[in-house]
Amino acid sequence: MNIPSTSEASEAYIALGANLGDRQGTLREALHRLEHHDKIEVMRTSRVYETEPVGYLDQPQFLNMAAVLRTTLAPEELLHVMLDTETQLGRVRDVRYGPRTVDLDLLWVEGLTLDTPDLTLPHPRMLERAFVLLPLSDILSQNEESSGFRRLITTALQDIDGKAGIRLWTTNVWECGSERSGS
C-alpha cells in the first residue's frame, strides 16, 4: 500500500478508456502509473468491456473499465495526476470524443460535490453513459449502499440505452491491485 495509514484518504472512482494502439496494455499501464504515485492506491478494478464509440463515430471501438482509487490527494490534484498520465501515454486532444490512446475521467469522490473551472463532481455525464455505468457497477462495494451511490448507478444502468453495444472483453487487466468486488 502506497498511502501512509495516518493520512486522511478518500475513495475516488475513475473511468478508463482506450481505442488506439495496444488498448488493453495501455489501460494496464495507466493503472500501474497511478499505483506508483505515492499518494494513490488502486483498490479495485472492473472487468474490461469493448464498446462502440459515442459522439464521434468514425473511429475504432473502445476498451472501457473503471477503478476505485484510495488517495490522499485533493480531487483537483488527482485530476492533474490523471491528465499527466494521459499525456505520458500519448493522449492527444485533436477531436472532441475522438480517438485516443487513453482517457481517464474522475467520476466520484466519496459523495463530494464540486464545480470548478477544471473539475465537476460528480462527473456531469456519468449517468448518461452505459460504457461508464456497467464497469462502475462491477466495482461498487456494499459500503456505497449508505451513500446512495450504488443505488444511483444501479438505477441509471437499468434505465439507460446503449447497453447492446457493450461486450465483455476480459475479466481483469489489473493483477497487482486488490481483487475487484464481485469476484
TrEMBL record:
Q: Identify the metabolic or biological route this protein is part of.
A: Cofactor biosynthesis; tetrahydrofolate biosynthesis; 2-amino-4-hydroxy-6-hydroxymethyl-7,8-dihydropteridine diphosphate from 7,8-dihydroneopterin triphosphate: step 4/4
| Domain of life of the organism encoding this protein | Bacteria
The protein's matches in PROSITE patterns, at most eight in alphabetical order, are given as:
HPPK (PS00794)
Q: What is its EC number?
A: 2.7.6.3
Q: Does the keyword Transferase apply?
A: yes
Q: Which UniProt keywords apply?
A: ATP-binding, Folate biosynthesis, Kinase, Nucleotide-binding, Transferase
UniProt cross-references to Gene3D superfamilies, sorted A to Z: 7,8-Dihydro-6-hydroxymethylpterin-pyrophosphokinase HPPK (3.30.70.560)
What reactions does this protein catalyze?
6-hydroxymethyl-7,8-dihydropterin + ATP = (7,8-dihydropterin-6-yl)methyl diphosphate + AMP + H(+)
Q: Tell me the CDD domains matching this sequence.
A: HPPK
Q: Which terms in the Gene Ontology molecular function aspect does this entry carry?
A: 2-amino-4-hydroxy-6-hydroxymethyldihydropteridine diphosphokinase activity
**Catalytic class of the enzyme:** transferase
What Pfam families does the record tag this protein with?
A: HPPK
Domain 7,8-dihydro-6-hydroxymethylpterin-pyrophosphokinase spans what residues?
A: 96-107
**Is ATP-binding among the key words of this record?**
yes
Q: Which NCBIfam families match?
A: folK
Q: Which PANTHER family match?
A: 2-AMINO-4-HYDROXY-6-HYDROXYMETHYLDIHYDROPTERIDINE PYROPHOSPHOKINASE
Q: Output this protein's name.
A: 2-amino-4-hydroxy-6-hydroxymethyldihydropteridine diphosphokinase
What species does this protein belong to?
Answer: Paenibacillus silagei
Q: What is the lineage of its organism?
A: Bacteria, Bacillati, Bacillota, Bacilli, Bacillales
